[in-house]
Task: structure prediction
Amino acid sequence: MDLNLNGDELNTCVQCGLCLAHCPTYRVSGDESMSPRGRIHLMREVQLNNAPVTHEVLRSFETCVQCRGCEPACPSAVPYGHLMETTRETLADAGLMTPWWQRLAMRPLAHTKLLGAGSVMVALAQRGRLVPKRLGLSVDVPFTQEPLRASGTDVIMFTGCVMDAWQRDVHQAGQRVLEAAGFGVTPSGDLAPCCGALHAHAGLADDTRTYATNMMRTLSRGAIADASIIVDSAGCSAQMKDYGHLLGTEAARRFSSRVFDISEFLALHLDRLPEGSQLAGTVAIQDPCHLRHVQRVHEATRTVLGRYIPNLVELDDDGLCCGAGGAYSVMEAQLSGQIRDRKVAVISAKDPDLVASANPGCSMHLGAVGVPTIHPMELVDRALHG
Amino acid sequence: MSMLEKARRRLGDRGARAEPATDDDRLLSELRLALAPDRVRFDGAERSLHAKDASVFRGGVAGPSCFPVNTEEVQAIMRIAAAHGRGVVPRGAGTGLAGGAIPLGAPIVVALTKMNRILSVDTDSRVAWVEPGVINLDLTRHLTPMGFHFAPDPSSQQVCTIGGNLANNAGGPHCLAYGVTNAHIMAMEVVLADGDVAMLGGLDPEPAGLDLRGVFVGSEGTLGIATKIAVRITKNRPAVRTLLLSFDSVSDAANTVSGIIAAGIVPAALEVMDHRITVAVENYVGAGYPRDAAAVLLAEVDGLDDGVGIDADRIAEIGRQHGATDVRTANDDNERALLWKGRKTAFGAIAQIAPDYYLHDTVVPRSELANVLEKVYAIADNYDLKVMNVFHAGDGNLHPLLLFDSREPGVLERVHAAGKEIVEASLDAGGVLSGEHGIGVEKQAYMDRLFSDDDLDHQDRLRRAFDPGCRANPGKVIPMGHSCADIQALRRVPTGVWG
Result:
């Protein structure tokens, strides 16, 4: 069947295999069908040779975490992420992937009130010990939260969906840091309820396009029309930087160029960050894949944290994924757990006091097995405000 | 059942029908019983994936794929294969460039990727025991805190396995000074084709008896499967210096290499890349490779600080005498790592220029490098093909890459013909067929050109001493027309299939 893949993009893979070691699912399975080279081969077989889309072929595509660790490893710059997203979109449209209940589960993300109500129920269930442990929900979902208040229009702070409902304290820390650097902040709140990253990964790119179009409209009006958009969730910033590709319009590309990950933005304005205090303890940096492999701005985390933390340590695994992958940790719990086991071993070898990760999914996933994970902005906030 | 499940089941049925009916059911159930159901696969997707490696050879047909986790399971696979008269093909990361892991005649594919433990490291005796599926670079990473590394460093070292290195007697840039894989394998436990286990070699400096270890290393899986490997580990040198020399012609670079060796210097590595590949590599790594040089020479010296400085200065001087237009020294470890990353990802960077490549791996005497290279460019021109050269200059190991787009009608014949002429030119200059990639299935046709019938007959008999039924990696290395290739009636394989 036609997967709607661009023939030239599909052809840029010479099957050299250098990506294999950078793929978390290949690393834990040793199986070619769970490697980027293998998945590209199967895409070619399906699209060019009309090979049947069997259960095994679908499993090969479904088991991809979409961490895109293979992309920086590829000397021929195969756009693997886009190939996989298009493949999933085609298969989801054909009814072969992402069943109705998964689609339904993603609906509330773009509706803050619905999400809020759902979160209260999760919070209740959590207190009643009704949330199964294997779901890996390591944060205590709050009943009520302090609202975020605007302090100016220099920058927009993108607050998003689940993170705003469950980890607003990270937003608050990020906002305080931005304000300490002298930026007036407008939280996006209801203006931009969801970036659509989870939808795009599940092959529901039409939903993502709708969210993108709405967000571009609401965040490009009035006093904030040209303000930089600061994002403290690496998965979201990566998605919003991809709107240009997703929509293919000049306006979308312009919008994408306004988007910055919060560490990336602060590294560009390092001189405006106050001195603060030095934090004791060893902090290991666990780069979210979408910060390191997709946006490739992970050095910024080190630049910013290095100012306040003398003992930063690197992990020895070339930024291999932790297995969180948005909804992946729930959908593919077993594989996701195996990938995490590997990561935990790499972290343990360094014996850090804390692990810094700039993505809510990663910190929840690692937190679920007791790894003390914290957002880099919470550390900077601590250094600045005690 | 959900709609999705139903749709899948429908497709699954269709998929199953699309596969040819086989008489493999009994074989499969025996394998599944011996291993575990989820570690034996025979679906269309897995079979099509395991029919290939990183070479351009097409025409492999895979039987069941097994993922053993210990020696006993490999033994069981071998015994079941023997009982069913089936061949067995070992597979590591599938990065081979000569088709060594391509299954011919639907043999059982034994993927050793799950046997990937580092079993022990003894820094006093400088030996590590590893399983065959350990990734080359993982071993070096493991050894780094102890101040050691595993010296053979094929370009694919970030993903290729020690078992694959052993099977192909792999080389790498730093094998110039340290020797190829054979010099770094001390002993190994192997499973022979009948399922018996043997220990070859030993940890003593001079083990008694015939050097069967030496026979097994580089045998490309045709003698059995290594399941535990004792590798020599090498102490890291205190000082390293890396130089990048630019030239206006490939000949100047090649002559500089001869000059350096003639001056009595043995650098850790001497690598040449021509203009086209240098640009592709620089596009990827941004290491500061010159985009306008006709060729670059990457030279590395290591040892004690003082000696390294003297050698580096002499190399720079010899380079300038041979027309080097620029000589640069890497300032720090990061710059050095980036330069090497460029060199080691060269093959993969090719898709920037063309979607397919075919390469040879001939070795010529160093003094003939410039001459043979000139011929390589002329041959490619003649066939209207693009060629790139990136090679281990220090030991005369050429890697001429012919670039093409397999969608272009008739191009494969031209590539094949040009490749043949390149091999002829190398052999005429006193060279050999393969430096490190192995013979596999791609270079078989040229074996007659290098070896007499007597030579091949002896190779064949040596092989049969290990594997009388010729079931270990059937159809490889020894060309058709010699007994092992004949006995294994590879009837399901269209021989010499291309494209």
Q: What stands out?
A: Chain B touches chain A through 52 residues (CB under 8 Å). The domain at 239-347 of chain B is CATH 3.30.70.2190 (Alpha-Beta Plaits).
